[in-house]
Amino acid sequence: MNPLIEQPMLYRIPIVTAVVAAVLTLGGDLAAQAAPCQAYTVERPNTPYGYEEINNCPNLSGEFSNANWRVSLQKWEPAAYLYRGFNRQTSDQIQLIDFDVVGTTARPQYRFHNGDTTYTVSFQTADPDTIRLQVYQLDQLVVNELLYR
User: Fold this and answer.
1) Contact indicator for 106, 33 with CB cutoff of 8 Å
2) Domain of 121: which CATH number?
3) Quick one: 62 and 93 in the same domain?
4) Domain of 114?
5) Which of 6, 21, 89, 121 has its CA 20 to 30 A from that of 139?
6) For residue 18, what are the CA distances in angstroms to 23, 26, 29, 106?
């Protein structure tokens, strides 16, 4: 037996156990913290839109900004979220409506697509006054900034 190969396995179990123990000791619930976002629609003929949004992730609305960006978010209608972005450096602005929700219930991510560019807004439910704006062009990260209410 090669002790260099087997030794890492001995360390993995206590570390995972320690993390689980720490979360449970602090009153956390691993399953609730790690629950993936699930967002979809179901037909509901007797509703105004004829369908209903099912989304276990919290949504966030309001205006957030920093020295470079101003972003406004709001729910537009079931299964549609509105993103308004303004680049303070170039004065470019964009408005997108999309329904692409990923992440976890503790850190949801709402993605808005415009051709080869994706605007991702994520936030931690524990801090609804801060968002992270990430902009990807052709899957390359070009913006990664924190914005505040």
Assistant:
1) yes
2) 2.40.128
3) yes
4) 39-148
5) 89
6) 9, 12, 14, 21
